[in-house]
Amino acid sequence: MVRGVPGTAVVEHDLREPAAILGDPELTRLIDVAVPTAVLMANVLANVADEDDPAALIRALLAPFPAGSFLVMSHVTLDGTPESAKAAVKILERAGLSAHPRARDQVRALLAGLEPVEPGLVWAPEWRPDAGTGLADDPGRSHVYVAVGRKAPDTVPGTISAWG
Q1: Taking Cα atoms as reference points, which of 78, 95, 86, 47 lies closest to residue 144?
Q2: Between 1.20.1250.20, 3.40.50.150, 3.40.50.300, 1.10.3720.10, what CATH number should domain 32-151 receive?
Q3: Dihedral class, residue 53 (left if φ above 0, else alpha if ψ from -120 to 50, else beta)
Q4: CA distance 143 to 122
Q5: Measured distance CA(71)–CA(112) in Å, rounded
Q6: Can the peptide bond before residue 139 be classed as cis, meaning omega within 30 degrees of 0?
Q7: pLDDT tens digits, residue range 124-135?
Q8: For site-directed labelling of 112, which of 60, 65, 74, 81 has its Cα 20 to 30 A away?
Q9: Which DSSP symbol is given to 66?
Q10: Cα(18)–Cα(24) distance, integer angstroms
Q11: What CA–CA distance (Å, rounded) separates 30 from 73?
């Protein structure tokens, strides 16, 4: 949908190969790594197995960007209402997709080294509450944690945890 739109690029790489992503000529044409940047990882990390070290992938993707850059992420979990979440995971797996939902502590570990942006690591409906979702009374039914973390000066992602 965005191919050919000025100021956009479509790069197709395996997330497990961050050097290929960061070195893609289309990406480097558009993004100045000297300027704070946001890396968006919306519902992709749950497709990365533990053995592929999703925390290391995050660190690698944020490494070239300066302090003040952000990681915006959402992550599927079995916390909250596990039976319905398990059913959703089975549907994904039957479709041939890899699904690796993580518990809150595991998601928090992925954010190590980043400063939390309020309200921190929360259920998706709690990030910017919208009464119209029907999830206000039970936000765990969303099956998704969300967070925004800021790369702080003089820190290396993965070394400090401020997420409580």
Answers
A1: 78
A2: 3.40.50.150
A3: left
A4: 11
A5: 11
A6: no
A7: 999 887 777 777
A8: 81
A9: P
A10: 10
A11: 22
Q: Are 111 and 158 in contact (CB under 8 A)?
A: no
CB atoms within 10 A of CB 50: 10
Rounded to an integer, what distance in angstroms lies between the CA atom of residue 95 and that of residue 89? 10
149 three-class SS: strand
Going from N- to C-terminal start, the domains of the chain cover 32-151
Residue 160: pLDDT band (50, 70, 90) is very low
What does the alpha-carbon distance between residue 120 and residue 145 come to, in Å, rounded to a whole number? 10
Residues recorded for the chain: 164
Distances (CA, A) of 107 to 26, 120, 133: 30, 12, 24
Residue 107 to residue 140: CA distance in whole angstroms: 15
One-letter amino acid of 75: H
Alpha-carbon gap, residue 145 to 79, rounded angstroms = 9
C-alpha–C-alpha distance, residues 3 and 9, integer Å: 6
Tokens representing 43 are 């519902």
